[in-house]
Amino acid sequence: MSVRVRYAPSPTGSPHVGNLRTAIYDWLLARKEGGKFIARLEDTDRSPERYVPEGIYDIEASLRFLGIMPDEWWVTGGSAGPYVQSQRLPIYQAEIERVIASGSAYRCYCTRERLDEMRKAQQERGTPTGYDRRCRFLSPEDRARHDAEGKPSVVRLAMPLDGVTVLHDEIRGDITYENRLQDDQVLIKSDGFPTYFFACAVDDHLMGITHIIRGDDWLSSAPKLVQVFHALGYPLPKFVHPPLIVGADKKKLSKRHGATQFSWFMEQGYLPEALLNFLVLLGWSAGDENRELFTIPELIEKFSIAGMSEHPAVFDYDKLNWINGQYIRSSEPGRIIGLCLPYLRKAGLIPEPPPGDASDEEKRIYRETWLDYARRIIPLEQERMKVLSEVVDLVGFFFEDLDYPNGYEPKAVAKWMGVAHLKPLLEKEITAFSALPDWTAAALEASVREITEELGVKFAEVIHPTRVAATGRTVGPGLFETLWALGRERTLHRLRTVLEKNDWPSTGA
Ligand code: GLU
Ligand code: ZN
After folding, report:
1. What's the pLDDT tens digit per position in 275-327?
2. Residues 88-240, CATH architecture
3. Which amino acid residue places its CA nearest to atom 5 of ligand 1?
C-alpha cells in the first residue's frame, strides 16, 4: 500500500512553527516512500479565534516558502476532494447516520444550562467532570418525542464503558488508556458541523491516509479518535506523534520563548532550506551521525519514522541562526543580494525601483546608483549575516547620508576622533586617495601603509580612525574593501566632512 500522509491545518492565522514541522515530516515521508502528500483544511470550528478566513493564505504561503507542495489539496484539487472540511458536510452527515444506527453514537439533547449545572455539581463534589451520559440511555419513546419537538441536539460517541483502548504509536509503541476515564465525545455539534474527531476519522479514511502524523498534544485524547475509527468500522491507520517542542526551560514552546508564528521566520529572513533543516532535526536524527546540516535530497534519502524521538526537542534559536548563517554563507552572492534588496528598500536605504514604464535613462540611473552599489556591498557582509534582515544594520552605513558627527556612533567618535595624528592622517588620505589611479582595495591598502609609515604610528592607529571617519562605526568588513565599495566620491566626502567639522583642539593643531 503506497504511503499517503496529510497535513491538516486549521485556518487560525500564520501556522505555529511546530505545526509546519509535522507538514515537513509528512512531505519527507511521502517523497521518501514515493507516496502522496495531501493537505486538508480543518475549518469546522467556526469560533472567531479558530476561524480566520485569511489564515488559509498564510498556510499556503508557508508551504510555498518551504517548497513542500502538496500533491493533493484545496488549491489544486485531487481525486479524494474536496479538501476543505466545511465543503464535506454531506459526507459527515451520511456517515454519522450510519454510526447512530449501529448504536455507537447517539443524539444528546442536553441544553447548555443543564451541562453547566452538571459540571458545577461535579466540581463541587470533587468528581471528574464530563458528560453524565443521560441521553445515552434515553428510552426510544423519549428520543422520538425530543426529535418530534425538534429539540436541538449534538451527536456523541458512545464510548465503551469499560476495558481499554490501545493506541500503537510508531514512535512510542503501545499506549493503553482506560475507557471508563473517557468522555462521550461530541462528534457533530448542534450547528451540524463535525468536531475534529469525527471529521478527522472520516477524512483520513476516505482520503486513504496511511499515517497520521500530528502533534503530541493530541496523544491524551487519542483513545477517542481510535474509538471513532472503530465506531465507523474503519481500519486504523498508523499513528505517529512527534515529540513536543520546548523552549530552553523545557516548557512547551510559546511566545514567552520568542516568536513562534511562521510568518515571523519568513520576515526575518531565514532561508527555506535552513528552516526545513532545522525543523526536521527537532525530533528526528539521522542515526549515529552528529551532523547538523543536510541538503534536502539527503533528508529525503535518510528520513524515516525509526529516526524519530519521543523526547521533547528544544527549539534553540541560536542553533537556527547558526544553521541559517551557514546556508547564507554557502549561497551564491547573487541570491543573497536579491533576497536582501527588499529589506534595504523597506528600511528606506534604497528607493523603490522606477515603474515599468519609466524611461531607460531612469532605469539605468537606478541600476547604476543603487543596484550596482548594493551588488558591491552585500557580499562583504554575507559571511557574517545570520538572518537576511540583519543586512539593514550591517550595511546601513554604506547608504546613510552620514554627516559627521550625525549618524556616527558616539563611542567610536570618542575613542578615535580625538587622537593626535587624526588631522594629518585625514589630510594625507584625502590627498592620496584623490590621486589614486585605480580605486581598488589593494591600491588603497598600499596607500594607507605608506601614510602609516610617514606618520610613524602603528597600522592599527590608522586603520581604526580611518574606519570610523569613513563609516561612523568601529566594526564592519575589511577596511580596504569597505572603502573600495563606498567608492572614491563618498569616501572623500566623508573624510572631508570629518576634517571640516571635527572639534580640533586649539593647541597642537
Ligand atoms: N486541525 C488539527 C490541528 O491543526 C489537525 C491535527 C491533526 O493533524 O490531526 O491541530
Ligand atoms: Zn444529553
Report:
1. 999 999 999 999 867 899 999 999 999 999 999 999 999 999 999 999 999 99
2. 3-Layer(aba) Sandwich (3.40)
3. 8
